[in-house]
TrEMBL record, chain A:
Keywords: Membrane, Transmembrane, Transmembrane helix
Pfam families (alphabetical): ABC2_membrane_2
Residues spanning the membrane: 58-81, 87-106, 140-165, 177-198, 205-229, 275-294
Domain of life: Bacteria
Protein name in the entry: ABC transporter permease subunit
Keyword Membrane included in the entry's annotation: yes
Species for this entry: Streptomyces actuosus
The keyword Transmembrane helix is assigned to this record: yes
Amino acid sequence: MAVEHSAAATSADQTRIHDIGYRAYDGPRLGRSYATRALYSQSLRGAYGLGRSAKSKVLPMLLFVVMCVPAAIMVAVAVATKAHDLPVAYTRYAIIMQSVICLYVASQAPQSVSRDLRFKTVPLYFSRPIETADYVRAKFAALASALFVLTAAPLLVLYVGALLAKLDFADQTEGCAQGLLSVALLSLLFAGIGLVIASVTPRRGFGIAAVIAVLIISYGAVSTLQAIADSQDNPGAIPWIGLFSPVTLIDGVQSAFLGAEPSHPGGHGPDTAQGIVYLAVVLGLIAAAYGLLLRRYKKVGL
Amino acid sequence: MVCVTIVDDVTVIATESLSKRFPRVTALDRLSVDIGPGVTGLVGANGAGKSTLIKILLGLSPASEGRAEVLGLDVAARGTAIRERVGYMPEHDCLPPDVSATEFVVHMARMSGLPPTAARERTADTLRHVGLYEERYRPIGGYSTGMKQRVKLAQALVHDPQLVFLDEPTNGLDPVGRDEMLGLIRRIHRDFGISVLVTSHLLGELERTCDHVVVIDGGKLLRSSSTTDFTQTTTTLAIEVTDSDEHPDGTLAVREALGALGVGVQDGSGLPGAGHTLLLTASGEETYDLVRDTVAGLGLGLVRMEQRRHHISEVFTSSDEPRKEATGHGG
C-alpha cells in the first residue's frame, strides 16, 4: 500500500500502472464459523436468485409475489367492508397456499445442493476449513430461512392490515404469533425433506420432480384416503392417516396446539395425545433429515 | 513484502509408514517420505495412490496406520488448521458454469476465511496472476479448458496458502496449454513463495518443472530424488527435419551424418510422425549444438527438436526393478 501512496503523490498528473508483483496476504483469516456464516448468507440470497443470473431470479420472486398478493387482497377487503375478522385465519394461510410453497421448495432445494454435487464443487468446500456438518447446517438453515421469509411475509401483511382495519389487537397478535410458529415449523420440515431428496440426485430436473412428488402427491393421496375414511363413517382413522404427508402433519400440529381449524374433512382434528404424536413425528423428521444429510456428505468427501 | 518464511531445511510434508487400506485395496503401503519446500512432483500411474495421499494430507481421510505432518501440523489432529494454510486444486471439473470466475473465486476466498473486502482484492490479484483478464466477468460455462484450469488454480491460491496440492493440473490441455501451466507452477514457488506438490502420470513434464520428484507405485515409495538425477539418465531428443532437392530423404541424411559423428540414432517408429522422427540420446549441452550444426551443414530445415516426454514406465525399467508388469496400466 505504501508503494502506491508515494507513487500517487509524486506523479499526481501522470497515470502509471505499476506492476507490483505478487502480494502475500497477512490479514485476518476468520476461520470456520465465519466461513459457515458466509455460506449461509450466500445460500439464502441464492434462494431468491440474488447474486445469480437474472433468469434465476424470476421463479423465486414470482412465487414470493404470488404468496403475498392474496394476503394483500384479503386485507383490502377487510378494510373496505369493515369486517370484524380477517377472512382467513393466520394458521390457515400456509395450508391454503401449500402448492406455492411446495413449488418453491421443489425449485430451490435442488438449486441449493444439487448444483454443488453436479459440478463437483463440494470437494472445494471440504478442502477448506469448514467441515461436513458446517456445510449441512449452513445449507439447511439457509433454505429454512428462505422458506420462513416466503411464508411469514404474507402473515405480516395480514397482521399489519388487520391493525389498520382496527381489529382487536390482542386477538390479532396472538393469531399472528401462532401462525408464525406454525410456518417456522413448516419451513424446517419442508427444507429438510427438500434437501434430503435433492442431495441424493445431482440432476436438478429429477430433484424438482421428486420433491413435488413427495410434497404434493402425498398430500393428494392422504386427503383422498381421509375423505374415503370420512364417507365410510370411520372418523377415528382420519388423524392417523394425516401423519403421512408433510402438509397434513403441520396442519395436525397447529390444530392440536396452535388453535387452528383442522382442514381434515369433517373437521376431525387430532386430539392432544394424537397432537403429541404429530409433533414428535415432525421433530423426528427434521432430525432425521439433518442426520441423513450429514451421512450423505460424509460419503461425498473429495 | 514477498516473504518466503520457510527455511530451506524445513520439511513441508512428512509421512511415516503411512498406510491406507480399503476393504479390497491397499491404496498406500507404509509410505515414508519427507518433502521439503519448492516444487515437488508426485508421479505414479493411475491408481498408484496419489489422490489418496492428498486426501490424507488434507486431513479428510484418516490413515489406517502411520502418521503424517503437513507444515509441521499432524493431519489427524489439526486438519482444520492445515486446510486454512493449504490450497487444493482437484483433478476433475469443479466449476459451476453459470457464475463468473470473479464471483466464484470471491466465494471460495470467503470459504477460506478471508473477510469480504480482502476476498475481492485477493481474487482480482490472483486471477491476474494466473492470466485471466477481461473474461473473468463472463460465466465460466463459456471458458476453454485452459481457462477453466486457471480458475481452478486461482481458487487454490486465492487465500495465499503456504502450500498447494495440484492434482493433475495439465490434464486435458494441449501442448501450449501444458507449457503455460507448467510455467505457472514454477512461478507459484519462485515468485509467490508457495510450495507446490503437483501430481502427474507423466514424468517428462514434471522433470522440467520440479525440484524434486517422488515416484509411487501401488502405494509404495519407488523413488524420491531431486530431478537432476532423473534428467541425467533419461534425456532423449526427438528431432524432425525437412527434405531438400539435394537430400530427398532428409531424415536418412541426418541419420547417416550423425552416425558418422558417433551419435547413437534410432528411428522413432512407434511415435507420431514415424519415419520422419529420429531419436537420439543427448549426452549433454553439446549434443544440441551438434544436431544444429549437422542439420545446417546439410542445408536442411530443423522442424522440431525437443526433449521426449517420458512415460512413467521408463523410470521403472531404468531403476532396474523387475516390476514391468505392474507399470503399464495400474488400474
